[in-house]
Automatic annotation (TrEMBL):
Record-level GO cellular component terms: extracellular space
Superkingdom to which the source organism belongs: Eukaryota
Main location group: secreted
UniProt-listed InterPro entries: Calycin (IPR012674), Lipocalin (IPR002345), Lipocln_cytosolic_FA-bd_dom (IPR000566), Maj_urinary (IPR002971)
Organism of this sequence: Myodes glareolus (Bank vole)
Stated family: Belongs to the calycin superfamily. Lipocalin family.
Pfam families, per database record: Lipocalin
Keyword Nucleotidyltransferase: no
Residues covered by the Lipocalin/cytosolic fatty-acid binding domain: 34-174
UniProt name for this protein: Lipocalin/cytosolic fatty-acid binding domain-containing protein
Keywords for this protein: Disulfide bond, Secreted, Signal
Listed GO MF terms: small molecule binding
Compartments, record wording: Secreted
Leader sequence segment: 1-16
Length: 183
């Protein structure tokens, strides 16, 4: 009995440790996140904001790290059938991988995880009119669905308390997407 309790405690401590390390992964090399990205999935605890006509339904184009450490996101979204470009400069904070930006309220943005080469996951906390909303975004270098991406995203969403029903698929939903010229 005692052994089981101790084992349980050790396991829950291990889990707590894991999720803390996971959500606040240190030492991201932000420069390597620069470049072209495509939105593949999003998730939120308020679906209205990421569904069609949602104010946080944004399609990523490009991420650049600026000289002063800010992170510049080039997005576009649809407004009444028109593609609108929006640039968001997220100011860096004292915490590595954490940024703030005003857009449809106040936001705190974290780079959750990335392999730099194929995918990146951002986590955002939005406060608009006193209401807090959590959003996760999964971006890929090459706009192509992979089962393993969805599995990974589901796993990460769960850590942030969002189940798979909170996930929307953005592939082929990007009406502004123009196939880039091969160089
Ligand atoms: C979800 O977002 C919509 C649109 O901004 C808002 O009207 C609604 O109150 C939000 N719901 C919750 C539960 O925050
Ligand atoms: C960093 O540079 C960008 C672009 O020049 C600017 O918009 C932003 O305000 C700067 N941030 C800080 C903290 O100086
Ligand atoms: C903000 O919240 C207040 C109080 O809940 C509400 O009366 C007001 O209509 C909201 N404003 C917007 C823009 O949603």
């Amino acid at each position: 009995m005692v052994i089981l309790l101790v084992l349980g405690l050790v396991l829950s401590l291990a889990n707590a440790q894991f999720s803390r390390d996971f959500t606040v992964q240190k030492n991201h090399n932000m420069a390597r996140v620069s470049g072209t990205w495509n939105s593949l999935f999003m998730a939120s605890d308020n679906m209205t904001r990421i569904r069609e006509n949602g104010d946080l339904r944004l399609f990523i184009r490009k991420i650049n790290i600026l000289k002063n450490g800010s992170l510049k996101f080039d997005f576009h979204f649809m407004v009444q059938g028109e593609c609108v470009a929006v640039t968001m400069v997220c100011e860096k904070t004292e915490t590595n991988g954490e940024f703030t930006v005003a857009y449809e309220g106040e936001n705190r943005v974290w780079l959750s995880e990335t392999d730099y080469r194929t995918y990146v996951i951002f986590y955002m906390e939005n406060i608009k009119n006193g209401t807090k909303t959590h959003v996760l975004a999964f971006y890929v270098r090459i706009p192509k669905f992979e089962k393993s991406y969805l599995k990974r995203f589901e796993y990460v969403c769960k850590i942030y308390g969002l189940d798979s029903q909170s996930i929307i698929d953005l592939i082929d939903k990007d009406n502004c997407y123009v196939v880039p010229k091969r160089t």
